[in-house]
């Protein structure tokens, strides 16, 4: 008989709930899970190892007497209607830890190459008006409405804004999965993005599982956090008219003004037209989500709060339905530089080819294991 492991049932239940999994989700792989959680049966070591892998839990944690208190390693500005969802999932934590490792590597790389501090970092204060901050960011990034309107799609506009941010020295990474694991999908309801402020290696991560239009607002929002010189994790809720957190409210206002200046909207918006059609027209013009447009229409005074709430609920339902029909995929060598950021990918590849970084470390930072993949990536980036 295989040896059973003395693990507290509470720890097995905690690992499952931490990963946002139900007993039904794991029933096929672990038919004895109910008995494990009740304490009537103990798992074997092999079963526990498989269970740790399925719940993305370090196996050593199962031998603790009670669940650990897990906290995010950066300020949490998220808001939740259901407070039970506030605790971070393994997917979120692993994504943050991976980005912190990339940032640490890039900081050393930048310092060794004599890079100057990024001027955008810490260039603003909460006392700066959102209009002034948005104008300053727009000038620094060189990404005004006249440039954005030339892009045919939201995806092109997002790529354009990311490229302009990276030219200023800001690392921008966008992914809808953890690392390269397509089975570990990120949930936009848990977070939309986060920023890791640093004078020489500022980093922004965008949840790529969100719509392209929403990702543009997230990038603008996190740029505002970077401009304050602070790290943050966010899940912007545009439905809330008032936000109790001053910093998050300021970043929302700056992002909205950066993408849709009220002066421009007041000239463009046609109140006499059908609101749904007008939302779609303005979203195409400004290359943002219809929800952001709707919020700005409210900010401009064209809608009362009751009208805004009703319209927002209807539009949110439509957007969520569209998201559910989205499909992923794409060429690996096209998506990888987006996942880790083109500036970061080029730096790692170049430094590795020059002998500054070990291949094994480059593979870990970039998220793959084969030398052939590295060679093809370097060619696609024009670094080979």
What's the total count of β strands? 6
What gross morphology would you assign?
Answer: globular
Provide a count of the helices: 18
Question: Termini, distance in Å?
Answer: 56 Å
SSE order, as H and E?
Answer: HHHHHHHHEEEEEHEHHHHHHHHH
What is the radius of gyration computed over CA atoms, rounded to a whole number of angstroms? 23 Å
**What's the story with the biggest beta sheet?**
4 strands, mixed
Assess the beta-strand content as a share of residues.
5-15%
Q: Order of strands side by side in the largest beta sheet?
A: 1-5-4-6
Helix content: 40-55%
What class would the helix/strand composition place it in?
alpha+beta
- Catalogue the unreliable spans: none
Q: Overall pLDDT, averaged?
A: 90
Offer a few descriptive terms:
four-stranded mixed β-sheet; 18 helices; alpha+beta; 6% strand; 384 residues; two-stranded antiparallel sheet
Describe this structure in words.
By secondary structure, the chain is an alpha+beta fold. 53% of the residues lie in helices and 6% in strands. It has 18 helices and 6 strands. The strands form 2 sheets. The protein has a 4-stranded mixed β-sheet with strand order 1-5-4-6, sandwiched between helices. Strands 2-3 form a two-stranded antiparallel sheet. A hairpin with a 6-residue loop joins strand 4 and strand 5. The protein starts with 8 loop residues before the first helix and ends with a helix.
């Amino acid at each position: 008989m295989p040896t059973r492991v003395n693990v507290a049932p509470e720890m097995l239940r905690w690992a499952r709930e931490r990963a946002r999994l139900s007993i039904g989700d794991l029933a096929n792989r672990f038919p004895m899970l109910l008995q494990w959680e009740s304490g009537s049966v103990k798992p074997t070591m092999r079963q526990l190892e498989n269970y740790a892998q399925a719940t993305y839990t370090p196996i050593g944690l199962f031998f603790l007497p009670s669940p650990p208190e897990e906290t995010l390693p950066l300020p949490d500005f998220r808001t939740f209607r259901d407070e039970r969802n506030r605790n971070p999932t393994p997917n979120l934590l692993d994504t943050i830890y991976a980005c912190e490792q990339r940032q640490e590597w890039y900081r050393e790389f930048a310092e060794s190459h004599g890079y100057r501090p990024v001027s955008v970092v810490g260039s603003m204060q909460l006392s700066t008006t959102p209009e002034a901050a948005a104008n300053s960011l727009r000038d620094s990034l060189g990404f005004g409405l006249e440039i954005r309107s030339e892009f045919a799609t939201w995806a092109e506009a997002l790529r354009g804004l990311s490229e302009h941010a990276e030219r200023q020295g800001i690392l921008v990474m966008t992914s809808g999965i953890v690392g390269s694991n397509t089975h570990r999908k990120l949930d936009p309801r848990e977070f939309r993005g986060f920023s890791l402020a640093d004078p020489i290696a500022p980093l922004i991560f965008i949840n790529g599982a969100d719509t392209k239009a929403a990702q543009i607002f997230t990038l603008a929002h996190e740029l505002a956090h970077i401009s304050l010189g602070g790290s943050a994790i966010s899940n912007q809720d545009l439905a809330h008219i008032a936000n109790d957190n001053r910093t998050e409210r300021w970043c929302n206002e700056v992002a909205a003004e950066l993408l849709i200046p009220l002066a421009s909207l007041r000239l463009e918006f046609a109140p006499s037209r059908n609101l749904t059609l007008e939302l779609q027209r303005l979203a195409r013009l400004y290359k943002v989500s219809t929800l952001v447009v709707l919020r700005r229409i409210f900010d401009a005074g064209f809608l009362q709060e009751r009208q805004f709430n009703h319209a927002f609920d209807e539009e949110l339902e439509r957007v969520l339905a569209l998201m559910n029909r989205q499909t992923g995929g794409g060429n690996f060598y096209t998506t990888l530089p987006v996942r880790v950021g083109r500036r970061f990918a080029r730096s790692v590849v170049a430094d590795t080819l020059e002998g500054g970084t070990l291949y094994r470390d480059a593979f870990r930072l970039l998220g793959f294991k084969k030398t052939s993949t590295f060679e093809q990536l370097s060619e696609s980036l024009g670094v080979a």
